[in-house]
Amino acid sequence: MANVINHPSRFLHLAISLIILIIFLIPLITFLNNNSLIFTIITKPYFSYYLTSFNNQSHQSHYPWRFSWRNTFINSLEFEGNVNYPSSSSSSNYSNDVSRAISPDFTKCGPVDLPPNAITSPYCCPTLATPFKFIDFKDYIINATYKYKNNSSIRVRRAAHLVDDEFIAKLEKGIAIMKSLPNDDPRNFIQQAKVHCAYCNGGYPQKHPFQDQKIDVHRSWLFFPFHRFYIYFFERILGTLIGDPSFALPYWNWDSIQGMQIPSYFTTPNSSLYHKLRHYKHMPPHLVDLNYDILSPKIRTQDQQISYNLAFMYKQMVLANTKELFMGSPYRLGDPAQPGPGSVELAPHNTIHDWLGAVDTPNHEDMGTFYTAARDPIFYAHHSNVDRLWELWTKLEGGRRDYRDDPNWLDSKFFFYDENLNLVRVKVSIIVKRPRKLRSKEEKEQEEEVLVIEVTELQSYENVKFDVHIDDDEDMLSDENHAEFVGTFVSLPHGNHGHKSNTRFMVGISKVLENLEAEEDDHIVVTLVPMIGKGDVTIGRINIQFMSK
């Protein structure tokens, strides 16, 4: 001992070693006593790495995952799964002068990626004329306008629960005619459904030199514009077949109290609008659950369900106050598919697909999986409402901005057949208007605090769902009508594109923290509750970012 005292440097080294040993022992003891893992990473605030997965949670209780940060503190409840650290990823650099707008190589359409045990194996590619030719939308719309110049009517979509018998008869007639057309007619009802299958299940490759990357319009900024064009041309075909070019699809406004059940005329067995492959327990007057959990459906009174639905819509629409939060992440030429979905795409869009899908089919066909979803006539009323929500979102708080300042979004292209069997090429810039004035300096400085959760190793042929809570009681988690519940991640089975996919969950939390009086807190606790998860799902980097509004 004297020898140690006579050598201060050795004493110092011994003391440091003891301190390090204690630092490592305390978390170990805590882990053994509390069955949880607690540790601290010394790094910048708002930035922590943590990776974990849940494997086939269908047979497990809903054990939550908890993360704390702001002061780089992470707390995770122990559960069955793997714990890893994410590897760093890099992306290629592209010149701003090179267009990276997504466009399908339409002549190279091929077999789509199907989920396991698919009940049908459709060839979703359209029949192409020889030689291959198309017309641009600007020429198409000029010709269409001239053709109907004597018709002063415009198409006005009405709420599905407010239409009259005459309208219902027209809708039934139009769908019946579409179903009766020859199988190789692009206007045939199943051919129209295959359009959705091809664009949403990897039927088209990207253009040279990225032919190895398949296009998927979901979980990205293409979700809203693609589906707007899709139902636009479906609507025109329908109107032409019944001799009424002003005919418009109804929108099933499940976001309002009066519309929270399937419109009854879609459930009449002898109607062309009826579809057999639907959830038999969800027929009227059963109310839709906008945050539906296919494995553990909630049992609620009608008043409770209405309250939860309205609160959930507020979160998905109002709290998603940046373009990336609402519309999804940018998706450019060369990018892997599904970079990150927007709030409404995740739910209620995905959850309603699940809510409608049959329970006795492997992938909840037809509405519960994308390769068959458009075979159900109610698909188009569902997406008419999704399209309506995009329009409503742009008008919130004096006007919210989408991606119209990004040329790669504006130049993204799709192909659709019109009512006259013309193949029409469209691009996103057609359906958005340029801003009338530049934003002020104050507007540019406005930012939203955003919780970003990277979802990696996602098996896209499986159902996956987890809910996200902030500063909640882990023993009594809040429902959708409480501020602590901030959102949900939902993935429907739609083919695996040959590999596991990576995507992101994003949710705005500025108003959440304000409502919870947590704006000045040094840390927040985030709870992830796996509700459905067959196969490996990995949570990668989690951080808080600031996004311009």
From TrEMBL:
Keywords: Copper, Membrane, Metal-binding, Thioether bond, Transmembrane, Transmembrane helix
TM annotation in the entry: 12-32
A Pfam match: Tyrosinase
GO MF annotation, one: metal ion binding
Domain Tyrosinase copper-binding: 376-387
InterPro entries reported for this sequence: Di-copper_centre_dom_sf, Hemocyanin/hexamerin, Polyphenol_oxidase_C, Tyrosinase/Hemocyanin, Tyrosinase_Cu-bd
Name of protein: Tyrosinase copper-binding domain-containing protein
